[in-house]
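User: ok so my PI wants both of these folded by tonight, can you help

Assistant: No problem, let's get them done. Here's the first:
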Amino acid sequence: MKNNPYKWLFVSFLILFCAAMASAVTLFIRYDRSTTESRHIEENDFYNLASGIENMDTAFQKGLVSTSPVMLASVAGEITEEASTVSALLSRLPITNEGESLSAKLINQSGDFARYLVKQTAAGCEMTADERQYFTDLAALCARLSTEMGELRQAIESGQSIAEALQNSRAFLPSDGTEAGFYSPSDEFPEFPSLIYDGPFSKHLTDRSPAYAAEFAEVTQDMAAKNFAEMLGIEQAELELDSETSGELPCYCYRYGDCYLSLAKAGGVPVSMFCSVAPSAIRISYDAALSSATDLLERLGYNPVEQSYFVKANNCFVINFAYTQDGVTVYPDLIKVTVAGDSGKVVGFDATGWVYHHVERDLDTPAISVEDGYNCIPEGMTVLSEGMAVIPTAGENEKYCYEYKCEQNDGSHVLIYVDAVSGCQADVILLVEDENGTLAL
């Protein structure tokens, strides 16, 4: 029987077709993967951009109530750094003529002026009235841009593409001389997505030896579990050793029901606990949550402490506590406790701040009086309360300060810290208060 030439032609065609299809599928998969990766990079750039602009806004607001050259230099440095990052991110996003947009002009002007302020304060110069007004104007514009970023974030999270959202935004169109119309102070201020609150001064450094844990000798994992079980009044058998960690703060890690617990090898000191729970709603009062949190800290031996601020998040109360010594609030020794809003049970705590920083402080008599500190309060502000506090600096040091809670003309609240030795403004914390608690910026 003779071979059919058409049969081999068909087979050859089929092989070539299959090879072509395989190549096409491979190219499609690579293209799809590349497109997905590009989208993720773009999303990451956008959210970093939004975060950077919000950080600039916060720094500007602090600058508006800064009265000392040192504090102003610190704020100006923050603005300079954030402006540089934001400017780089703007160039990577799908924005037409991004260098000519309102936002780009604002970011560049803010960065340039902030760098100028750093040099001026380094030379011992204070802002003139005109410079202060220019700073105020930039702050207002940055606040409006921050608001716009909040609106864009909502649009994108509702399904709009980043490119489309940016193209429809007035802030990212080329400037046409109508900036004042866009950045109108009469515009209604929209609600922002909730922020994760971690309390004033919660971001102090932990790249140091844990001072509190250093006071204890190392114990076995069995002894650590035994001590913790006795503190909480539970059976030691409920704690199952999961792993161990090393580093500056070596810990034993246990499973405790739905919770993950870390105890320092030094003395079995409780460091943190996080539970995998999802409270359905908030049914208890804040006072009930505070009672549960306070009871836990007493059992764990963390006292004396005082409640600082709290926020409601994910149907939980997140309450911050700080150590108190002779009536002085010591913010570096921070503890955060999370209480479920439905059951009132403690479902998490983080005592890292306490474990790293807690020691008895030598609190000398202040060199200035509380009345002298009022010289650092801007005109127009009303002082609601005053006290003493220890706050961390940008390095590993601390400052002994007067703490003034003030009210601005718009009813918002600010914490102003004045160095009790030098009499200079040491720090400013903005308080954003609503029905969900207090955000400290």
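One down. Here's the second:
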Amino acid sequence: MARAVWGAISRLDSSALMMRAVAASLQDEFVDVWEFEPGRTWKAKFLSWVGHRASWLLIGQVMHARSAPPKLVRRITTDALASWAISLYQDVPGKWDAILIGASNGGVMHLATALGVPFLSQHFASVLEGLSPLDDVEAYHELSKEVAQRILRRNRDLAVIQHYDPLHNRLYRGHLPILRYKLLDLPEHYQSFIHQRVRPGGTIIFADCRYSWPQYLADERFWFQVGGLGGVPSSDYITGEHEEIASLQRKAGKESVGNWALPGKLAFDMPEAEWGSLPPLRDRVAKFARENGYRFLGIEGEQPSFFSHLAFLVWQKLLRSEDLSPRGVFIETNLQIAPLAARRAALLPLWLPRGTRDSLTFLKQMRENELDSISGIQRKPVFWLPMPTPMISFDMPTWDEWLDVLSGYDLRILGMTRRQYPLALEAFYKAQEDLADWVMEHESPVRRYAQVSWLYEALRELRLR
């Protein structure tokens, strides 16, 4: 029964992708991020040189092809979500001394690969068939509301968030409905997996991302979020009179009010739909650990980028433990990830949550605080995997702004050129391929795994800064 609805789970959502990437790395494989079917790659290469609008249309086709029919999504259960997550590790042999559970992001992914342990997400998502019109907040809310309510009635241990991001998830003709699910309790499948695969006395590490965002309460355990992580303040989405938002609304033939508020509703700060962890699960996991003889470590971070910084420090400690000098750095953006490069070639990983101004600011801080202190960094390759996107949003830095932050390095930009930015369809497959090719030619394997105690050390270092 559970397996029958796995097709309703989005494999490309950040939550699912980070788990897929950890599972692939534990099997010494590069994750196939985009999972293009045969024939898509040559079409992407051709359209990369044809024009932005044609590329945008192809993105829409791909997204539609990967959306799920509402009648399947209605059948989502906690059992289906959890069983799908642990199925990713069924071909990974052995037992572990620790496991990561909780909020999903690239930093958590890199912590898991440094430790050599699995990651089980609190978050999941579905992308539903059917478009809502551009900039019509109420239409978007109505489109998947019945599906969400059906899921909630069947699953008392789930919260559901309708996630409407009219800026970053904008397609040419409308918006695909996204439903996000958050576990409120530790599923039986997760409990059994821990008993079977985590050694007695091992550590359960909970990634507790405290990033918040205003959400409308639609019903019990049912929320509606407008916007998301990026370079635009959350208040601008629902209470502001933003001229750039008004301009988008005019182009879509809508009233240019300058925000995307849901009329007649009040919004409350809640854990952000994609990145924030919902509190009840942490308490349930801590209780399970206490009652079953496992250690518990909760890692709190105010932003997804906090976990990226933490993982960078842990990987530094891991390389030092093997007397390895970093061979370089690879900078991932959002879903453009290749975590195995760290273990195969002693490259330090730095994950950026988005290709927006807030991530540019984080990159500047990481350069000042970490990258420039790496011995010989100017002579070592710094790879950047930009995230291709069809929407040139107003919170997106220019190409030159990215290059300015990375000036002075031996910068290797993978999958994209200045002319193609920000939508090079080749980047959907070429960036990871090119990095994997370099890794194969410059292998410097990291054979050890990080110790949980190094997490405590890295956390102390970050708290003191």
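The two ends are 50 Å apart (CA to CA). Residues 304-463 form one domain. Good luck tonight!
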